[in-house]
């Protein structure tokens, strides 16, 4: 993984960073690269409340905010931005105004690498809208001044339409940090983690590949 000047990560929900990019984030931080994570919402419309439930709809935003802070702490992220948008409404935001917010972040931080979702290939409308706003902001810059844009895609047709991911980061040296970040989002991951833990203990090949490898598509502008 190349040493970057500054990495900006932009996702709409708490826990978006944990599953697919937390090992990459942790590696950059261990390399001495500053990482800013801009999270648009608090995931207040999430359906998971723990099992047995340990919160309710009214308190879920507080829980998820605390979980997000804990995940950031586990990863070593010192610059966490919570942008205050509402869960499941990002797709309805004014596209240019949302891109303006992303442009302001890029202007302030001058990142050499930006990580977000690949618009159209990230399943959730909030994911796609966030990725589209980041793409629009980067595209506004002169070509020579644009940071590299690495996108996460996981729709069923992403490989068919985009080809294989051109960046695959082996993050096995920081796998425990990644697992800690996933665990931090307890309200969303507790149910699945017992199964994952058992498979990790048994060195299940599919789980090991999922944990140790993070894939990205470098966005290519027309």
Beta strand %: 15-25%
In the CATH scheme, the class would be Alpha Beta
Specify the number of helices: 8
Task: Please name the fourth-level CATH homologous superfamily.
Answer: LmbE-like
How many strands, which pairing sense, and closed or not: the largest β-sheet?
7 strands, mixed
Low-confidence stretches: none
What general outline do the C-alpha atoms trace?
globular
CATH architecture: 3-Layer(aba) Sandwich
Q: Distance between the terminal alpha carbons, to the nearest Å?
A: 26 Å
Structure explained in plain terms:
There is one protein chain. By secondary structure, the protein is α/β, with parallel strands linked by helices. The chain has one domain (7-218): Rossmann fold. It is built from eight helices and seven strands; from the N terminus they run βαβαβαβαβαβαααβ. It has helices at residues 16-30, 60-75, 95-109, 125-140, 158-162, 175-184, 186-201, 205-212; strands at 7-11, 35-39, 79-82, 113-117, 148-152, 167-170, 213-218. The chain has a seven-stranded mixed β-sheet, with helices on both faces. It is globular and about 50 Å long. The model has no long low-confidence stretch (mean pLDDT 93). Its cofactor is Zn(2+). This is Bacillithiol biosynthesis deacetylase BshB2.
């Amino acid at each position: 993984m190349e040493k970057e000047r500054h990495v900006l990560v932009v996702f709409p929900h708490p826990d978006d960073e944990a599953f697919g990019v937390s090992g990459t984030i942790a590696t950059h931080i261990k390399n001495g690269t500053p990482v800013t994570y801009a999270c648009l919402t608090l995931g207040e419309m999430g359906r998971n409340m723990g099992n047995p439930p340990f919160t309710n709809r009214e308190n879920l935003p507080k829980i998820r905010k605390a979980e997000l802070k804990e995940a950031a702490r586990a990863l070593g992220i010192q610059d966490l931005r919570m942008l205050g948008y509402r869960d499941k409404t990002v797709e309805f935001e004014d596209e240019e105004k949302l891109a303006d917010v992303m442009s302001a972040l890029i202007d302030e931080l001058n990142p050499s690498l930006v990580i977000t979702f690949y618009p159209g290939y990230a399943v959730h409308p909030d994911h796609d809208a966030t990725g589209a706003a980041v793409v629009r902001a980067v595209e506004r810059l002169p070509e020579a001044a644009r940071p590299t844009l690495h996108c996460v895609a996981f729709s069923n047709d992403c490989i068919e339409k985009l080809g294989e991911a051109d960046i695959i980061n082996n993050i096995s040296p920081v796998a425990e940090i990644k697992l800690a970040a996933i665990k931090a989002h307890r309200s969303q991951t507790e149910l699945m983690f017992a199964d994952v833990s058992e498979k990790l203990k048994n060195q299940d090949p599919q789980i090991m590949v999922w944990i140790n490898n993070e894939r990205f598509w470098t966005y290519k502008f027309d």
